[in-house]
Structures are given as C-alpha cells and as structure tokens.
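CORE FACILITY INTAKE
Project code: CF-77B
Contact: R.S. (postdoc)
Sample description: multi-component assembly, two entities in total
Requested service: structural model of the whole complex
Turnaround: standard
Below are the sequence entries exactly as provided by the requester. Do not edit them.
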Amino acid sequence: MDDVDDEVSFRRATQRDVDTVVSLLADDELGRVREQPGDPAYHAAFAETDADPNQLLVVAERAGEVVGTLQLSLLAGLSHLGTKRAQLEAVRVRSDLRGLGIGKRMCEWAISVARQRGAGQIRLTSDRGREDAHRFYERLGFRVTHVGMKMALD
Amino acid sequence: MDDVDDEVSFRRATQRDVDTVVSLLADDELGRVREQPGDPAYHAAFAETDADPNQLLVVAERAGEVVGTLQLSLLAGLSHLGTKRAQLEAVRVRSDLRGLGIGKRMCEWAISVARQRGAGQIRLTSDRGREDAHRFYERLGFRVTHVGMKMALD
C-alpha cells in the first residue's frame, strides 16, 4: 500500500460511469447537499461534456473498481503570450480509500496530461473553507495566487 | 457620459483584432511584464481559441473603436446536477477610458450571454492583490467563495 502508483490506472469516463461518478461527487460534505444521484440531468450533462474535445472527464481505477474521478479542461486564450491553460476540478477519491495517495497520483497524472496537451499552466479553485485541500495542492506545487468568485444565474 | 449602455456594442474578435486585444492585455500593471505585443504566438493562440465553440473572445466597441476585451468560456460538467458554468477572464478596458462604466457594461453583457448559453453559474478568478477588482465584481453580484491556485508547467 506504500506505492499506489502502479495500481491506479486512468481512462476517459463513459456514459456507463455516470452514476458512479455522481456517487463520488455526492460522497463529500459539500456534495451531499448539492447532488441528487439518479437525476437524469447528469446523463445530458455527460453527453455535452464528452462531446467537447477540450473537456476530459476521467475515472481512476484500482483492481478493476472505480476509485476516483476528476475533470480536466483545456482553455486556449491570448493572455500570457497565448499560453494554453489546463483547469482541474471535481477531483474526488472514494471516501473509504482516502489517505492512501490515490488523490496525489490522480493529480500528478492530470498534470502530466496537461503538459502533453500543450498547457503552460494548470490551475484550480478550491472552496475557501477546505484548508486541508489547499495544503494538499500546495504539496503538489500549486500556489494560492487568486481569489475565486462566483455568481449563480437563474 | 452617464450612460454608456447604448454606446457600447460587442462582437466576436477576429484575427484582425489580435494586435488590439494584445495591446489591451498589455495595458495593465500585471500585463505589462508578461505580454509581448507583436509576438506571432498570439495569432496561433487566437486561431485555437476561435476554433473552440465554447470559447468566446470578444471585443467591445464604442464609436467605431475597440475599447475593451473579455473572454467567456463555457464548461460542461457533472457537478451541481450537471450545471453548465461560464467563466469570465481577460477582462480589460482601455486605460484612458476606465471609470466610465464600460467594464460594468461588458460584464453585464457577458452575464447575459452566459445565461443565454444555458450556464447556471458564472465564475472568475482575480489576482489576490487586485482589491479594487474584487469590489467591482462584488458590486456586480459575485461573491468570493474559493481560493484560486496555479502552477506553471515547463
């Protein structure tokens, strides 16, 4: 168990993974209140995500089971000499498997894919209150540089 | 001058706007050091941005002149019941025209486009030190909810 690197593999999520991915999103303090596993909206959202070549929704597997998920987006733009940016979000590890290094392995994988896809920067936002998550990402090399602001649209 | 709403119009940027957009990005304390107007990399980055139907690079015009720019990205995903998110960035108003309400008009336009395109949330990140910008976005209805983290990739 001291090296999960060889045990975890990654693949693009398929429509058949949607329920599992949603259960991972819901298996979390914040996710519990905002997700509704079983809602058909998730399948429509999956189809739209999957159709976008700059969106990569991924599942991590270990011993034939899905143990985590993440989404990596690639964003072209002119800023910073036209640097392509990768954006990491919806990173979740199955709650009974946390603390084993699976999340670290997943993020390192995402960073390597971002590089392969030509990104010169990777970024993420993390809920203000999730200080453990901030430390986790700092250990991976991320630095807090920005504030993240949101507004719900009706 | 008390109402710029009717004076400012918006259109998708074209290859011919690239130099103007770059000059707007560079016309700023942080942009000055990180942009290099005239570099051919911007034209390649424009082509990639423009080819992505979920990226909208926009110029704002007033009296036939480009006075501002912004980029709006649309991101599908499963989180929050499959809510599509809009992301606003690279918002710049020509420095000699700041304080007239053009930036507010541009952001309100971006919010309305995000709604039209089916986004249930709009978000942005703003450099930690830009407190004036945070207040500006708070007045538009944004709330600071997250920290924004980055890492450069070699």
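Facility notes:
- Chain B has one domain: 4-140.
- Residues 4-140 of chain B form a domain with the Aminopeptidase fold (CATH 3.40.630.30).
Invoice: internal transfer
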